[in-house]
Amino acid sequence: MEKLKSTLPNILLSLTVICLIAGIALSTANKYTESAIAVSKASELQNAIKNVTPEFDNNPTDEQYKASVAEGDSLTIYPAKKDGKPVGCAIESYTKNGFSGMIRVMVGFDAEGKLFNYSVLEHNETPGLGSKMEEWFRQDKKRQNIIGYNMAEKPLRVTKDGGDIDAITAATISSRAFLDAVNLAYAAYSGNTDAISGATGHTDTTSGATDTNTNNKTVDTDTTSGATAGADTNNSNVIIKTNH
């Protein structure tokens, strides 16, 4: 077979054929993996709900509904039932006020409205500091544990804000944001937007960030503990964010 000459039309034809073949291949692959991805996501969601609610025998995702919260937003509620009777629910909540932005959590309540459990679904908090939220607030140390907390009595707040909960050492901002997300979940559960702490959508006027020619290196400090973590003494380009 005679080799095609390297002319512009021939080059364009070859590229077109290659793009068509690649497109067909990608489309075929997506078709066969799409259902598997959907099944995997559904399974992850179901497991997250199981981790934060009392035992149930219904399918909460089939009975999910939206509940309005402050500022026109809404959260998804997954009702948990046993023998047809409500035993609690799971609520997917969030806050954008984390030290590094978005924090997404699954919060579970029992039939009495007490906090049954929680699971952190997503966060970008500082490793070794704000990232401790996954376990910190379920440990029976000092005033850390929020499991079993009666949310009807008052919102969750860190002690620095006049509340009852000890913040993660050197990570007050992360702690405050996490509790905001839990309070928002309860507001959706109870239908009472007053249940949201005043820190939801919170602007901390007493805290600030000091930047010194950053190189994406983060140090989270808390002046209440005097603790500084994650600093690299060999790197002069460090962002120091202070939790006051």
Describe this structure in words.
There is one protein chain. The chain has 244 residues and is of the alpha+beta class. Helices cover 28% and strands 26% of the residues. It is built from 3 helices and 9 strands. The protein has helices spanning 8-52, 133-136, 172-190, and strands at residues 65-68, 74-82, 85-98, 101-110, 115-122, 208-212, 218-222, 227-229, 238-243. The protein is elongated and about 75 Å long. The model is unreliable at 197-244 (pLDDT under 50).
In short:
The protein is about 30% helix and about 25% strand. It contains three helices and nine strands, in the order H-E-E-E-E-E-H-H-E-E-E-E.
The CA-CA distance between the termini, in Å, is 77 Å
Number of helices: 3
Rg over CA atoms, rounded to whole Å, is 24 Å
Helix-strand pattern, N to C?
A: HEEEEEHHEEEE
Gross morphology: elongated
Beta-strand residue fraction: 25-35%
Reported for the largest beta sheet, the result is:
5 strands, antiparallel
Q: pLDDT average, as an integer?
A: 79
User: What share of residues is helical?
Assistant: 25-40%
- Number of E strands: 9
- Poorly predicted runs are 197-244
Question: What order do the strands of the largest sheet run in, or round the barrel if closed?
Answer: 1-2-3-4-5
Structural class: alpha+beta
Q: Layout of SSEs?
A:
Blueprint: H1 8-52, E1 65-68, E2 74-82, E3 85-98, E4 101-110, E5 115-122, H2 133-136, H3 172-190, E6 208-212, E7 218-222, E8 227-229, E9 238-243
Parallel strand pairs: 7-9
Antiparallel strand pairs: 1-2, 2-3, 3-4, 4-5, 6-9, 7-8
